[in-house]
């Protein structure tokens, strides 16, 4: 029998309340520091398209690195061959914005979910699309089935002003020949897609094709099954940076996090789940979000393992 998703997420929402105050809201992007830290939203979209939600599930938030999941999918649609020569498929074991491995490995980022990898993906989209910002927005609106999805340019500009590490990563990769467009242009688009605002329900819906072998709720192909397998595997091994092992151990779902406090996870054939709680742990992942995911797979008895 299918577990009662609504009852489980309501129970979890109450049980995680004592954890409020244990994490810290991201403040290296000044605009993100303004967020109310006490928000908690959870949404699930099951394979039949039913959506179950609690708390602040309708409040928009900055998806930040979760956008890397969607830009990767878009880049895979635009560029099939060269992509995997320019970015790897191994976990990094380092922080999302680390420079350490990049020089040792000749400017080829370990995977598309660390900042360096996502910046290469942004460069690929810039090279393949005439109107790259519009292409990203169009893709996001299609997969969320929500025409109101937007970038938040105040957040994008705030990050652009303070994102010196991302500039350092980009210039280093440019030196190795792994950034083809102008660095400034790449960084502008990268910050822009990180500033996308979705709510938990949008995010659960947006990930539906990853649980349905690449097809959206209307049966339209978003990604071919081989690429869905690849994306979900990368989420499992690298979606939570240096917490990827801990997350696999405790939760057992492919997932992607962002410093806005969101996490989205998928169980192919069953459900996608999104959580938003802005306070982060020391690895930049939502502290309550990780706990919610762990409690959900434990209580429902449903994980990939
Ligand atoms: N835009 C953020 C950055 O580049 C994304 C990081 C994240 O969400 N982990 O630092």
UniProtKB/TrEMBL annotation:
Any single Pfam family the record assigns to this protein: Glutaminase
EC number: 3.5.1.2
Reactions accelerated catalytically: L-glutamine + H2O = L-glutamate + NH4(+)
Keywords (A to Z) from UniProt: Acetylation, Hydrolase
Binding site for substrate: 65, 115, 159, 166, 190, 241, 259
One annotated GO biological process: L-glutamine catabolic process
Superkingdom: Bacteria
Transmembrane regions listed in the UniProt entry: none
GO MF annotation: an example: glutaminase activity
InterPro entries per record: Beta-lactam/transpept-like, Glutaminase
Subunit structure: Homotetramer.
Family per record: Belongs to the glutaminase family.
Name of this protein: Glutaminase
Primary gene name: glsA
């Amino acid at each position: 029998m299918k577990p009662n998703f609504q009852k489980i997420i309501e129970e979890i929402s109450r049980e995680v309340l004592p954890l409020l105050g244990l994490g810290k809201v991201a403040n290296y992007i000044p605009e993100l520091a303004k967020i109310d830290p006490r928000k908690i939203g959870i949404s699930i979209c099951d394979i039949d398209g039913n959506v179950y939600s609690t708390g602040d599930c309708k409040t928009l938030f900055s998806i930040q690195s979760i956008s890397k999941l969607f830009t990767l999918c878009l880049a895979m649609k635009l560029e099939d061959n060269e992509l995997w020569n320019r970015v790897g498929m191994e976990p990094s074991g380092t922080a999302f914005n680390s420079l350490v491995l990049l020089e040792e490995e000749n400017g080829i980022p370990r995977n598309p979910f660390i900042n360096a990898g996502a910046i290469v993906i942004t460069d690929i989209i810039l090279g393949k699309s005439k109107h790259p910002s519009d292409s990203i927005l169009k893709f996001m609106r299609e997969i969320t089935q929500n025409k109101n999805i937007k970038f938040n340019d105040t957040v994008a500009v705030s990050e652009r002003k303070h994102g010196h590490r991302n500039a350092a990563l980009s210039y280093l990769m440019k030196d190795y020949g792994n950034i083809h467009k102008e660095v400034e242009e790449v960084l502008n688009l990268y910050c822009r897609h990180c500033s996308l605002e979705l709510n938990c329900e949008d995010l659960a819906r947006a990930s539906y094709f990853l649980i349905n072998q690449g097809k959206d709720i209307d049966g339209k192909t978003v990604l071919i099954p081989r690429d869905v397998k690849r994306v979900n595997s990368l989420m499992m091994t690298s979606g939570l940076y240096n917490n990827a092992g801990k997350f696999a151990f405790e939760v057992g779902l492919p997932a992607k996090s962002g410093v806005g406090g969101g996490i989205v996870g998928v169980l192919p054939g069953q459900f996608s789940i999104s959580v938003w709680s802005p306070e982060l742990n020391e690895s930049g992942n939502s502290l309550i979000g990780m706990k919610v995911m762990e409690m959900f797979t434990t209580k429902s008895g449903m994980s990939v393992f």
